[in-house]
Automatic annotation (TrEMBL), chain A:
It holds the Pfam family MoaE. Residues 143-153 have a biased composition (Low complexity). The keyword Nucleotide-binding does not apply. It comes from Bowmanella pacifica. Its EC number is 2.8.1.12. Heterotetramer of 2 MoaD subunits and 2 MoaE subunits. Also stable as homodimer. The enzyme changes between these two forms during catalysis. Residues 154-165 have a biased composition (Basic residues). It comes from the Bacteria. Pathway: Cofactor biosynthesis; molybdopterin biosynthesis. This is Molybdopterin synthase catalytic subunit. It catalyses: 2 [molybdopterin-synthase sulfur-carrier protein]-C-terminal-Gly-aminoethanethioate + cyclic pyranopterin phosphate + H2O = molybdopterin + 2 [molybdopterin-synthase sulfur-carrier protein]-C-terminal Gly-Gly + 2 H(+).
TrEMBL record, chain B:
One of its GO terms (biological process) is Mo-molybdopterin cofactor biosynthetic process. PANTHER family: MOLYBDOPTERIN SYNTHASE SULFUR CARRIER SUBUNIT. Belongs to the MoaD family. One of its GO terms (cellular component) is molybdopterin adenylyltransferase complex. One of its GO terms (molecular function) is nucleotide binding. The gene is moaD. NCBIfam families: moaD, PRK11130.1. Gene3D superfamilies: 3.10.20.30. This is Molybdopterin synthase sulfur carrier subunit. Keywords: Nucleotide-binding.
Length: 165, 81
């Protein structure tokens, strides 16, 4: 069991991150957890419109970090996880650049895998970020996908997500 | 006073990033209906199917009560991650 509640690291920023550095932060001095799961999201060069050169990420500054903290608090209610690190970039990004990092540790892998995916699924439907893609025809707001909504909701239809390993 | 913020595509469609309203509204739904009645185009931009809403930075539905000093935001379904 985790006897002290570790602090969650949540960062919304323009600057890039290093997955290697984040991994070290998740592991350093943490010998109680046997699993580290991390996810990195990148800017694709092909999406709803043709050749995407890059995108601008707009957000609602007063709400963004608050909504991410709520998601992480929910994770801690549903799963027994150790450390959580969550970084989301905003501003102008080029194709191929990193957008989002989620890292979760837990004693056993099942909890960390599920918690990491839950954070991404909820972030995509609840955190106030909006992408505007740039291609050679101009700029286009990315439209939300119905399947993301379904993916975020399916967690609540499992009776006991923390019992699934 | 109630401050109303708009983000992303909705901000561009509305032509405003914020409005300050002196009126009192019982709940979010009443404010939404008031705004939808201001301009023909706003009717569809602000329809519940096309937009999400937050009161004091929390996602809520139309039955959420409103009070003077609340910060209300309308925005399109989110697309981060």
């Amino acid at each position: 069991m985790h006897h002290t509640l570790p602090s969650d690291f949540i960062s919304v920023r323009e600057t890039n991150f290093s997955q290697a550095e984040e991994y070290l932060q998740l592991c350093a001095g943490n010998q109680q957890d046997g699993a580290v799961v991390s996810f990195v999201g990148l800017v694709r060069d092909f999406n709803q419109h043709s050749q995407v050169q890059g995108l601008t990420l707009e957000h609602y500054p007063a709400m963004t970090e608050k909504s991410l903290r709520e998601i992480v608090a929910e994770v801690r209610h549903l799963w027994s996880v150790g450390r959580v690190r969550l970084i989301h970039r905003v501003g102008s990004l080029q194709a191929g650049e990193q957008i989002v990092f989620v890292g979760v540790t837990s004693q056993h892998r099942g909890q960390a895998f599920q918690a990491c995916e839950f954070i991404m699924d909820q972030l995509k439907t609840r955190a106030p970020f909006w992408k505007k893609e740039r291609d050679n025809t101009g700029e286009h707001w990315v439209q939300a996908k119905q399947q993301d909504q379904q993916k975020a909701q399916h967690w609540y239809h499992q009776k006991h997500p923390h019992h699934i390993r | 006073m109630i401050e109303v913020l708009f983000f992303a595509q909705l901000r561009e469609q509305m032509g405003h990033d914020k409005l300050a309203l002196q009126n009192a509204f019982a709940d979010l739904g009443a404010l939404r209906q008031y705004l939808m009645a201001q301009h023909r185009e706003w009717q569809s931009y602000l329809a519940p199917d096309n937009s999400l809403a937050a009161v004091n930075q929390c996602l809520v539905d139309d039955s959420h009560p409103l009070h003077a000093g609340d910060e209300v935001a309308f925005f399109p379904p989110v697309t981060g991650g």
